[in-house]
Amino acid sequence: MKTATPATGASPGAATAPVDSGARSPEAAEVIGGARERIDALDDRIIGLVQERMAVSAVVQEARIGSGGRRVHLAREMEVLSHYRDALGKPGTQLAMTLLELCRGRV
Ligand SMILES: O=C(O)C(=O)C[C@]1(C(=O)O)C=C[C@@H](O)C=C1
Fold it and tell me: Residue 1 Cα, ligand 1 centroid: separation in angstroms?
């Protein structure tokens, strides 16, 4: 009986082997390898955008605190949460809550 070897799409001799793709054919491994490269590039951009959002949020918070106000502005947070929920559904709310925590810390 032939033993199935999972196709990983890993290039021989690569310095670090990628995580197994789970594919059962070289063709599927190729598709997965290419798509994962795009996902990694997208994740890098998303992380960069999150960091940019954190910096802009800090400008807003510092201006408000410097004027005697508070760090947290709940009405604005409700707008942000609605924005994400309207675009992404219920999990969007969770994502927005995580973003807000990254931007202003835990409340
Ligand atoms: O828009 C503001 O007033 C902000 O301070 C920015 C921000 C945000 O990161 O979106 C952060 C903290 C506030 O509680 C509300 C929103």
Answer: 62
